[in-house]
Amino acid sequence: MSASDKSGTASRRTFLKGALAAGGAVAGAGAARAAGDPAITQIQPWMQELGDGVDVAPYGKPSEYEDQVIRRTVEWLTADPVSSINFTPLHDLDGIITPNGLCFERHHGGAAHIDPAEHRLMINGLVDTPLVFTMEDIMRFPRENHVYFLECAANSGMEWRGAQLNGCQFTHGMIHNVMYTGVPLRLLLNEAGIKSEGKWILPEGADAAAMTRSIPMEKALDDCLVAFKMNGEALRVEQGYPLRLVVPGWEGNMWIKWLRRIEVGDKPWHHREETSKYTDLFPDGKARRFTWEMDAKSVITSPSPQAPITHGPGPLVIKGLAWSGRGTIPRVDVTIDGGKTWAQARMSGPSLDKSMHAFYLDIKWDGQPLYLQSRAHDSTGYVQPTKQALREIRGVNSIYHNNGIQTWYVNEQGVAENVEVS
Amino acid sequence: MSKSLKLFGGAFLGTAAVLAAAANFADGTIASLPDQASRMALNAPADMDGMFIAAAQADEVPADAKLGLGREALAEEIAVWDIDVRPDGTGLPEGSGDVMTGEEIFVESCAVCHGDFGEGVGRWPVLTGGFNSLTKDRPVKTTGSYWPYLSTVYDYINRAMPFGNAQSLQPDDVYAITAYLLYMNDLVDEDFTLSRENFAGVEMPNAEGFYMDDRAETEIPVFTGEPCMEACKDTVEITMRAAVLDVTPDETAAAEAAADTAEDEAAAPESEAAPDAAPASESDGHAAIDPALVEAGEKVFKKCKACHQIGDGAKNRTGPQLNNVVGREVAAVDGFKYSKTLDAMEGVWDEEALSAFLANPKAYAKGTRMSFAGLRKPEDLAAIIAYMKAAGQ
Q1: Which of B137, B212, B268 sits opposite A289 (nearest CB)?
Q2: Among A183, A259, B51, B201, which is most exposed with the fewest C-beta within 10 angstroms?
C-alpha cells in the first residue's frame, strides 16, 4: 500500500485484493528489505503538516480509512427499505460493545424522528391509577446501567435451507450489544399500581407501525428496563429515541422502540408480530408461539468471507462472539477441521449476563484449508447445536431462532466462504 | 436477576448505600437524623450486612416505594391511544362494514401493494390463499391460511395501515376491509357484514395451529451435556456453498452507497435538512429555490417516501422514482408499470399539472394506482414541488 495514497479505502481494498492475488504474501515487507520501508524513509504529510483543530469535529467520526465499516442491507429480503433491516459489520468490530452508529436497524414503518419534549409514556389498563410520564418525569426515577445483546429472532433466518450469504455481517449481523441506561420497568409499573389480575403487558411504539408485543408480567417485573441512553449517549433515532424497552435475552422484536404506552392486561393480545410473524412453523404445519428466549449462539467473525486472511501462514487470530438469552457464556469451543477436533477458545473481556462475549483462538496457520466452527456453552449447560440437529427438530420453514453452528471454509489463499459440511 | 457479581452498575448505588449507612450510624450514636438518611438515598438497605452485600453485588435499584411522579392519564387521552384489540373482541369500537364497501376501500388504499385480490405485488405481503400449504415445502402464510385470530387483522390494519398513512381509517372502514379479506379468503359470502357484535363469532381456520414454546422440554435436554472434543468424525466434506447461490450483495456497490448514509448519520444533526441543490438550479437559469421552502417540502415528502424515491440512486419502488419529475413527461420512467390512465395522458409534469395532481390525485387522473388522498394545503403543494426540484436534480 502506497503511503502517499490519499484514498484510504481504495488503497485498503487494493491492498486486500493484491494480497489475495499474491497468495497471501505480504508485498510491503519485501519492499522494506530492498530499500527501506517508505512509510519510514519518506516524510509523510501527517508528519509535516498540521492536523485538524479541536473545532473540526464537534461530534467525532471514525477515521476516513475506516469507511468500509458500515451497516449493509440485503435488498432482496424485503419489499421496501422503510420496513426492512440492515446488518451490523461484526467482522470489522472487536470486543463486546457495538458502536451506536453500527447497531443494526429493524423497523416496520421507518425510523421515527420524535421531539422528546412532545414524547409521553402512558401506563394504562389493569392499574390502580393510569399515568402519563414526560421524559423529565422518567429521568427522575432511579436508573440502572446494564450491557445486553439485542438479537433479532430472524438472525441467520436466511440460512435454514443451507449456506446462502457470504459474510457474518449478513448471516449473523442482526445483533448488537450496548450498555443501556434506563429505569427498571417495575418501578414505572409500581408507580401506577398493578392490579392483582394484571398478568401481561402490551408495550406500544409511537412510530407509524405502532409496534406492539405481549410480555408476561413476570418478565416485566424481573429485568426489563425503559432505556433512554445507549453507550452513554441518547438512544439513536433508529434505536427508538427518546425511549425504548429493553427485554434482556429475549427476541429483539419485543424491545419496543419509540415506547409511548404500556397497557396492563390479564391475557396476551396475540397481535400481528406474535402470530403472523415471530412464530416458528414446523413441518407438521403447527407453529410455536411466544418463543421469547434467544438460544445460546456463537460465530467466528474473522476469518470470515468479508475478512479473509491476507497475511499468509503463521500466527493467526481467530476471533468471535458468543451470547445466550439465558445467562453468560463460560466457554466456547472452536474447531479448525470442521468438527473432528475441538479446542477451548480463550474468553476475553467482561462476562455479563445476557451480553455478548468475545472469544479468541490464537493459532499458527500452516496455510492449509480451514473448516472453522465455533460452539457456545451457556451458564445453564446448554450447548449450541449443529444446524442439522436443529433442522431435524424444526424443519426448514421456521424462519426464526436459527442458532446452529456456522462453518467458514478458508482456502489456501486465505479466502473464506460460507459453507455447510458433513 | 442473578445474584452474581456484575462488573457494571454497582459502584454508584454502592456509594449511595455507604453514605446512607453512615447517616444511620450517626442516628444511632448522636440521635436524630432519619431525614438525613432519606436525603442521601431513597431506599438504602436496612442493616450493615445488607449494605456491604449491596456495595459488592447490587446492580439493581431496590426502591419500590412510589415516587409520586407523572400525572393521572385522562380518560380522553386513554381513549385516543388505547386502540388495541384482543381475540375476545376486547377493544373493538362500535361500527360495521360489509364486503362490497371493503372491496372499494381495498382497491383504493391497499391494492397498490397487496394486489387487487390480496395476491401481493412484488415482495409485499400476500394476504389471501395458501390454504393447506403450511405443511408444504413453501408455505404461504396469509391472513386466511395462518393468522389464528380475526382480531389481529382488525388491530393491525387499524394501527399500521395503509402503509405510510397509518391510523387514517375510520372504524367502519376497518370493519369493511376486514370483511373483504374474509371474503377473499372464501371464509364469508359477498353479502357479509362484519360488526362489533358478530366479530367474536368468526373463527379463523388456523386458530388451533399454534402451541406454547416447548423448547424447555423438546430441545434443551437434547442440547445439554458435554460434547465430543476429539476424534468426533472421520471425514469432513463440504455439502453446500453460499457461492453457488450468489445472492450476497455486491460488496463494493453496497459499501459505497451505504458509506454516504453512514457519513450523514455521523454528521452534526443540523446538517440533516436542506439538500444543497440551489446553485445547480440557478445555473440552469431557473429562479433560485427558497431553502426554507425546500426544507418544508422535505417534511411533506415523508408522506410520499413509502412509495417514491428521489435523489442520487433513486429507484422505482411502489411508485416511480421522482428525479427530474418537475418538467418530466407524464409516465416517462423506464421500467415502471403505470396505470392505463397515466399511460394515456399526454404532456409534462409542469408545476401547475403537478399541483393539480397532488391536490387530488384520483380526481385529476381517475384510475391512477397512486394510493394517496392528496395535499389540501397550497403551501404544502408549493413546498413539495420546491423539494422535488431541489432533491431530484
Answers
A1: B212
A2: B201
